């Protein structure tokens, strides 16, 4: 029986995909897999039994990726599972920024005791008038699962959409509407677009990417939307731009003390993926990824180990080896198996940056001594006999 621990409340719909070979445990020390949403794992000490962590969502800033890789722990995420939920909120954010819906609702609440409110509104509503998004230029920075959906939906609503992503995948490119103009310079988005929405991961190269310098190149009265990561925007520079009117509205899904006090900011309480459907989709995807890894050794959507899939093992045994990506590692592994009299019927080796993964189907199951000899090879991080 394989044991799974949930660090956060995980959708019961997703947990329902666990087979009878799994049980959910409250004891994290005995768990082979952890399912997590927003809880931080950075201060956590992992037990030797832990093999995988699956994040029910896309962002993994709450997980120590390299430390997990060094311990031979595969970390998964669920890209695209919550894309529709975030897309819909981005569209709502554009509409909220275009027309003062928030101010209008607040006026109705403030005047709800007025018996003549239906007449008073005719004089007051002009204060909340706005514009339409049809025909406006939208710049989408980052064309992954969410960015592509936002771009396509905005194009369908009649916006002129520009997309920028120097690392766009072939699959993502195929998913883009032909009405989305793929441009090669982000400067064009800054200079030409009425709305700018960012959908990139938080890395050293993207931290604070919207700052005084980049904002200065934008059109006067631009609307900026951030439903990706809080630290992509320099809060002090954004506050100054809002105060001066350079930026008309800033819509963010990340409340913090600075954003909450910004003039002309619409601050949403991190609701991007907070839909029943998104939580179900993320949980199901995380559970399926984890089960495939624990049962078959296959890796999909890992953020610290390479993709590797050998399907279901049809030989006597399957062994997974996590190791550093260094020369002659494959030679040492195969040589050790040969010296122990074990034939490798099929093998796949994949690497990702400093780490690599070797999956072997064998004609017979290795004994404990063989596993010990493999573990003794310098650079090997974990050896797992899957069956």
Q: What's a quick, concise take on this entry?
A:
The protein contains 14 helices and 16 strands. The protein is an alpha/beta fold and 387 residues long. A seven-stranded parallel beta sheet has the order 8-7-6-9-10-11-12, with helices on both faces.
Describe the 3D structure.
This protein has 387 residues and is of the alpha/beta class. It is built from 14 helices and 16 strands. A seven-stranded parallel β-sheet has the order 8-7-6-9-10-11-12, with helices on both faces. Strands 2-1-3-4-5 form a five-stranded parallel β-sheet. Strand 14 and strand 15 form a beta hairpin.
Distance between the termini: 14 Å
- Tell me roughly what share of residues is in helical segments: 25-40%
Helix-strand string: EHEEEHEHHHEHEHEHEHEHEHEHEHEEHE
Number of helices: 14
Strand arrangement, major sheet:
8-7-6-9-10-11-12
Coarse structural class: alpha/beta
């Amino acid at each position: 029986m394989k044991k799974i621990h949930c660090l956060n409340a995980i959708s019961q719909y997703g947990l329902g995909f666990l087979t009878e070979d799994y049980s959910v445990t409250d004891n994290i020390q005995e768990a082979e897999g952890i399912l997590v949403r927003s809880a931080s794992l950075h201060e956590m000490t992992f037990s030797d039994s832990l093999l995988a962590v699956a994040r029910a969502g896309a962002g993994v800033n709450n997980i120590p990726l390299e430390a997990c890789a060094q311990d031979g722990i595969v970390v998964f995420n669920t890209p695209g599972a919550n894309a529709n939920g975030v897309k819909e909120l981005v569209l709502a954010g554009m509409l909220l920024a275009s027309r003062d819906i928030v101010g209008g609702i607040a006026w109705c609440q403030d005047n709800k005791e007025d018996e003549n409110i239906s007449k008073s509104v005719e004089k007051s509503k002009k204060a909340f008038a706005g514009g339409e998004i049809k025909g406006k230029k939208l710049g989408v920075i980052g064309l992954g699962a969410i960015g592509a959906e936002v771009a396509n939906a905005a194009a369908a609503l009649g916006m002129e959409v520009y997309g920028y992503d120097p690392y766009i995948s072939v699959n993502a490119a195929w998913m883009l509407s032909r009405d989305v103009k793929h441009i090669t310079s982000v400067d064009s988005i800054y200079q030409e677009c009425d709305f700018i929405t960012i959908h990139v991961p938080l890395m050293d190269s993207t931290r604070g990417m919207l700052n005084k310098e980049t904002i200065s190149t934008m059109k006067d009265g631009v609307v900026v939307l951030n439903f990706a990561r809080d630290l992509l925007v320099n809060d002090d520079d954004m506050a100054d731009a809002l105060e001066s009117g350079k930026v008309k509205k800033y819509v963010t899904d990340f409340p913090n003390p600075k954003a909450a006090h910004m003039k002309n900011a619409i601050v949403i309480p991190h609701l991007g993926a907070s839909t029943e459907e998104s939580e179900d989709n993320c949980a199901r995807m995380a559970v399926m990824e984890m089960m495939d890894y624990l049962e078959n050794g296959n890796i999909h959507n890992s953020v610290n180990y390479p993709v590797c899939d050998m399907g279901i093992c049809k030989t006597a045994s399957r062994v997974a080896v996590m190791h550093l990506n260094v020369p002659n590692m494959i030679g040492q592994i195969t040589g050790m198996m040969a010296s122990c009299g074990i034939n490798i019927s099929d093998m796949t080796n994949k690497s990702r940056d400093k780490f690599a993964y070797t999956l072997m189907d064998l004609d017979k199951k290795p004994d404990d001594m063989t596993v010990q000899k493999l573990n003794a090879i310098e650079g090997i991080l974990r050896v797992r006999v899957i069956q």
